[in-house]
């Protein structure tokens, strides 16, 4: 090829220009740089063609689907696709956090503790919205939390009912992600940023839920019911898994705090149970409550039955004595049911219902660290140990029993022998 021919070929080369990432579909089809004018770019206007922008249209369709999927009253909302969930979750975080999120790198979110600095972990856990949250939502979407969702039986119910409810209720979404982070930490104990992120979401949830707790509108009863369940789980899980425990960490105080939170919200929900029963969650919540109804509790079969009742009879005044006797019967009946069945639904119901069923007078004795109440609490630790699928309790039964043993001292040691035999049994 001659020099002249070579120059002619070079002269026919297409002139380069910077790409237009947000250009219209017409200019992309024509391989023409779009000036991105709205509503019609210059090229489409000159050629009298319709001008369409793909990104804007897709976002519009996502927002429309999210709005249509929001729950209305007690009826079941429509199902959401994963892209709906991602779009709505982003909107919720933007509206519920005052600060602006900075990007979280994969390195900061996924680096094992052995290679991560404390500063990078703190940074990963303190962002209002970050890549780590996508992992937490993915864990939810893949069914990782079905064992703590009493009204969700399968992934179909998760998508069509619960997820739209959580996306429409920011405090419930934050609490859901807190539990998801703790669930992942239970599986991957080296990732401290998961516990820190759970703490962030828990604080956001507690801040956002305040208006609904102060005065509960009927339509908020259902999300508050789920929030109460999740808050109790996350409070116990934080006590069980938190790697930042200080020397003054008190498992008894942490556990009783979780009890108070759950009892307080459930008490305010009492007037709305008739409404809750009419929602999509009503039948399955009723099914959860009825777990183990075919079994007969036998509290007298627990070796400590007689001695615990004798201790309870010595409590004064009479209303606290009655509350202690009831707590003994509730605790030992629950233990006898767990000895008859390893059903996970039954274990979950007994573990979460125990603090609600025990009377307020008994909880006041716990707050005062009265010996009889602490011995009954030690039996609750045995209940947690015997339960099936209670991942959120982690090492809490052992820590709780150790703390009770320390507080009571040698004088009361013999009354802890049976719960110790259960909690310290590695086969449990």
UniProtKB/TrEMBL annotation:
Name of a matching Pfam family: Fungal_trans_2
Domain Zn(2)-C6 fungal-type: 23-53
Superkingdom per UniProt: Eukaryota
Compositional bias segments (type: Basic residues): 10-20
Region: Disordered, residue numbers: 1-24
InterPro entries: Fun_TF, Sterol_Uptake_Regulator, Zn2-C6_fun-type_DNA-bd_sf, Zn2Cys6_DnaBD
PROSITE patterns: ZN2_CY6_FUNGAL_1, ZN2_CY6_FUNGAL_2
Keywords: Nucleus
One GO molecular-function entry: zinc ion binding
SUPFAM superfamilies found in the cross-reference section: Zn2/Cys6 DNA-binding domain (SSF57701)
Annotated protein name in UniProt: Zn(2)-C6 fungal-type domain-containing protein
């Amino acid at each position: 090829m001659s020099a002249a021919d070579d120059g002619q070929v070079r002269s026919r080369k297409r002139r380069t220009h910077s790409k237009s990432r947000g250009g219209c579909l017409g200019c992309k089809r024509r391989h023409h740089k779009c000036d991105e004018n709205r509503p019609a770019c210059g090229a489409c206007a000159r050629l009298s063609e319709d001008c369409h922008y793909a990104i804007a249209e897709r976002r519009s369709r996502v927002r429309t689907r999210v709005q249509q999927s929001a729950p209305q009253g007690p009826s079941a909302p429509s199902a959401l696709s994963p892209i709906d969930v991602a779009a709505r979750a982003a909107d919720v975080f933007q509206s519920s956090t005052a600060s602006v999120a900075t990007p979280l790198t994969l390195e900061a979110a996924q680096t094992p503790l052995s290679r991560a600095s404390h500063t990078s972990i703190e940074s990963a856990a303190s962002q209002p919205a970050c890549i780590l949250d996508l992992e937490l939502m993915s864990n939810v979407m893949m069914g990782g939390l079905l064992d703590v969702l009493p009204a969700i039986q399968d992934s179909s119910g998760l998508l069509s009912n619960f997820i739209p409810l959580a996306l429409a209720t920011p405090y419930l979404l934050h609490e859901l992600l807190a539990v998801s982070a703790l669930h992942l930490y239970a599986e991957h104990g080296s990732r401290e940023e998961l516990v820190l992120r759970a703490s962030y979401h828990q604080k956001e949830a507690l801040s956002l839920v305040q208006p609904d707790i102060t005065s509960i509108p009927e339509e908020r009863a259902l999300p508050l019911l789920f929030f109460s369940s999740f808050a109790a789980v996350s409070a116990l899980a934080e006590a069980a898994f938190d790697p930042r425990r200080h020397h003054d960490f008190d498992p008894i105080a942490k556990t009783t705090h979780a009890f108070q939170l759950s009892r307080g919200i459930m008490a305010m929900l009492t007037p709305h149970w008739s409404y809750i029963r009419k929602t999509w969650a009503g039948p399955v919540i009723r099914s959860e409550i009825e777990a183990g109804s075919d079994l007969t509790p036998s509290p007298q079969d627990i070796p400590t039955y007689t001695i615990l009742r004798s201790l309870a009879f010595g409590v004064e005044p009479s209303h606290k004595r009655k509350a202690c006797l009831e707590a003994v019967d509730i605790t030992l009946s629950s233990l006898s049911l767990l000895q008859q069945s390893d059903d996970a639904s039954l274990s979950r119901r007994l573990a979460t219902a125990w603090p609600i069923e025990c009377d307020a007078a008994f909880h006041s004795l716990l707050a005062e660290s009265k010996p009889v109440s602490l011995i009954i609490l030690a039996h609750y630790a045995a209940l947690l140990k015997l339960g099936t699928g209670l991942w959120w309790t982690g090492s809490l039964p052992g820590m709780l029993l150790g703390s009770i043993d320390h507080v009571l001292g040698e004088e009361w040691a013999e009354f802890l022998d049976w719960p110790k035999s259960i909690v310290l049994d590695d086969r449990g």
